[in-house]
Amino acid sequence: MKKTFTIACEADLIDGLKSHSRVAYRELYDRYAPTLLSVITKIVEDETEAQDVLQDAFVKIWKNIHRHDSDKGRLYTWLLHVTRNTAYDYLRAHKKAPQIELPLEGYLPEMGMVWTNTGSIGFSDAVNTNLDPKYWQVIDLLYFQGYTQQEAAEQLNLPLGTVKSWTRIALIKLRQTFHNDQVAFLC
User: Fold this and answer.
1) Within 13 Å, how many C-alpha atoms sit on residue 54's CB side?
2) Dihedral of CA 125/126/132/133: which sign?
3) How does pLDDT run across 121-139, given as a tens digit for each residue?
4) Neighbour count for residue 57 (Cβ, 10 Å)
């Protein structure tokens, strides 16, 4: 019979992890490794590499568990954030990140921005001509990398309100661009 997972159990697990209990770490791995491996595999698209990334993610989790704040969210959400970032870091380090091959002025590789091929709908032209790179970075994290606004704020080291404002500004500018160019854009 499978043991149900409750908030109290999660709190006990977090306490064990923060005290560097090997038993808690084993429990964490047993509970979450299959799900996190699935997430990583979708990102890196190679099972062997995904297993390596999973190990790297668990090392980061082990070393940084003190950064998890239960008041800000569930343990799983934090684990997912660490795992996804580890996978994207792996792709960038191995130059396997999907990047478009369209000429875009304002492309900022030093910011580690990953672009997705959206040229077929004219999106890249709109970004190139009408969107400040700081707004594009927020849009990239939210819409192409799957971050929540809170996660994007943490990733960019910005207040949540700033991320929300920049998202709104970017969407307004893009909507205006597509409207002015008479391009149908469905959200």
Assistant:
1) 21
2) negative
3) 445 444 545 677 788 778 7
4) 26
- CA 145/CA 87 separation, integer angstroms: 11
pTM: 0.50
What integer best gives the mean pLDDT of the chain? 75
What's at 45, amino acid-wise? E
- Whole-angstrom Cα distance, residue 123 to residue 174? 8
Q: In the structure encoding, which two tokens stand for residue 8, read together? A: 């109290």
DSSP string for 37-69: HHHHHHHH--HHHHHHHHHHHHHHHHHHGGG--
Q: Which residues of 86-117 are buried (b: 16+ CB within 10 A; e: fewer)?
A: bbbbbbeeeeebeeeeeebeebeeeeebbbee
Interacting residues of 13 by C-beta distance below 8 A, sequence separation 6+: 24, 27, 28, 75
Q: How far does Cα 184 stand from its chain's mean position?
A: 28
- Supply the DSSP symbol for 140: I
User: Does position 99 have pLDDT exceeding 60, yes or no?
Assistant: no
Give me the amino acid identity at 58.
Answer: F
Main-chain phi, psi angles of 60, to 5 degrees: -60, -40
Predicted pLDDT of residue 8: 60
The predicted-structure confidence for 36-93, as pLDDT tens digits, reads as follows 999 899 888 889 999 999 999 999 998 889 888 888 788 888 898 899 889 888 887 7
